[in-house]
Amino acid sequence: MPVRIKKPEVKKSDIAFRKWALAAFLSAAVFGTVFGALINTILDAGKPVPTTILFCAYALYLVMTALAAWKGISAYAKEDVGAALFQGLLLCFAAICALVNIRLAIVMLLESYGKSETAEKLMGEQSTSDFIASQRTPWIMLAVGMALCIAVGVLAIVKLAASKKDK
């Protein structure tokens, strides 16, 4: 009879990281959905309620991605989980990409609440339409970061499912 080789046990910090990566994945999905549904309304009308909803979804995505990145890096520090380190660094990049867009998010929020003077200070010499048009690179970075977050989330789902199957 052939000898069965036991799979290495999944470490607790790796499982915790995978759960946080799944939460980041869900927050990216929520933010992407809200962004797609509300961005035209916000850019056309600038109403405060949709802008606040979008800002809250953005903040949730930023915080969850940063926390998942921290959990991945700490999983490596605690139990030497190399995959968690790599994926944590990917999530760190995604959080930085989201952070690059914070000025735009704050300007949109301030504009929707009629705080144009404060928004103009953040925009500098540009008009609002020029400022939003100049944000092409940060928006591309945000999309790349969200794609990375979703990819890490899918890997987390696979790893969590495999660890449940092994038990």
Protein model, in words:
The protein has one domain (12-162). With 167 residues, it is an all-alpha fold. The chain has helices spanning 12-45, 48-79, 82-100, 102-112, 116-123, 128-133, 136-166. The protein is elongated.
Structure keywords:
167 residues, mainly alpha, 7 helices, 0% strand
Q: Helix proportion of residues, in percent?
A: over 70%
What's the rounded overall pLDDT mean?
A: 89
Q: What is the end-to-end distance?
A: 23 Å
**Topology, number of strands:** 0
Q: Main β-sheet: number of strands, strand sense, barrel status?
A: none
Number of domains: 1
Rough shape? Answer: elongated
Per DSSP, the total helix count is 7
Provide a brief overview of the structure:
This protein is mainly alpha-helical and 167 residues long. The protein has helices at residues 12-45, 48-79, 82-100, 102-112, 116-123, 128-133, 136-166.
Topology at a glance:
Blueprint: H1 12-45, H2 48-79, H3 82-100, H4 102-112, H5 116-123, H6 128-133, H7 136-166
Helix pairs in contact: 1-2, 1-7, 2-3, 2-4, 3-7, 4-5
